[in-house]
Amino acid sequence: MPDPRVLIPTTGTCAAACAKAAALRFLGESQDVVEVTLPQGGKTRVTVATTQKGRACWAETEKPCGEAHDVTSNALIRVRFTPVPGGDILITGGTGVGKVTRPGLPLPQGAWAINPSPRRQITENLREVLPEGLGGWVEITIPRGEEIARKTCNPLLGIVGGISILGTTGFVRPISCEAFQETIRLHLHQRALLGGGVYLVFGNHGRAWARKLGFPEAATVEVGTFLGFALEVCKREGIAQVVLLGQIGKMVKVAGGIFDLHHEVADARREILFAHLVRFGLPERFWKAVWEAKTAEEA
């Protein structure tokens, strides 16, 4: 189980904390720190501020920034709780929370981008404090959400208007490889549903070249160093047309059969490039210069 003293709460955990604090405020209990149940068990504590106007109560918190810094760090997350008789709990978004516009995500088109795990977490935490027969309407807003979302993968995934409320474990993990791979998988799954080929790029340079060549932005998928993973997903999804764009350094690795492109895994760029150049007739007078080149671009 993650150590709550080290890891940072997700947007989902922050929203659950605010929902619980706002419900407690309605019930007459004002708290500055609220204990939240996590999706996979255990609890953590989140600092909140609450207000009340009539029967509606609000709670807000600033998503902490730690080693797992991301674009949502320090974002203000605000929740309004309005009591509803009957026991049902309705969870919606508002300003700064995105909406799903394409198939292939774990939410239907038109839904607020509040993932299933945070929805369950919010509901569970409210059930802990609400009396039987009392439900509530939970509205989540992120004041700077639309601005923050432009720095995420949401536009590529067809999530518009704001960020997503996420969190499978309830904590942001310092190493985000799994999250990035999941983004790649979702993007490729969407492309498979929509049909047509994909254009795999390693980063900003490849994306810029794809744009210059007129390739559709929505079909351009950034894979970072996880080319092998992305190609495996393409195979599983039945994507037959794959175009790869990138700088020569990473392309040389691919030519040598290296598909995990992280520098700690494998390099051999000089050796691969030298072998290919010699194999295809590079005059001997260039051998020394190529071998001693500091970068693949120089060679």
From TrEMBL:
SUPFAM superfamilies registered for this protein in UniProt: CbiD-like
Biological processes per GO annotation: cobalamin biosynthetic process; methylation
Keyword Magnesium among UniProt keywords: no
Entry keyword Transmembrane: no
Keywords of this entry: Cobalamin biosynthesis, Methyltransferase, S-adenosyl-L-methionine, Transferase
Molecular function terms from GO: methyltransferase activity
Signal sequence region: none
NCBIfam families, alphabetized: cbiD (TIGR00312)
Protein name: Cobalamin biosynthesis protein CbiD
UniProt organism field: Candidatus Caldatribacterium californiense
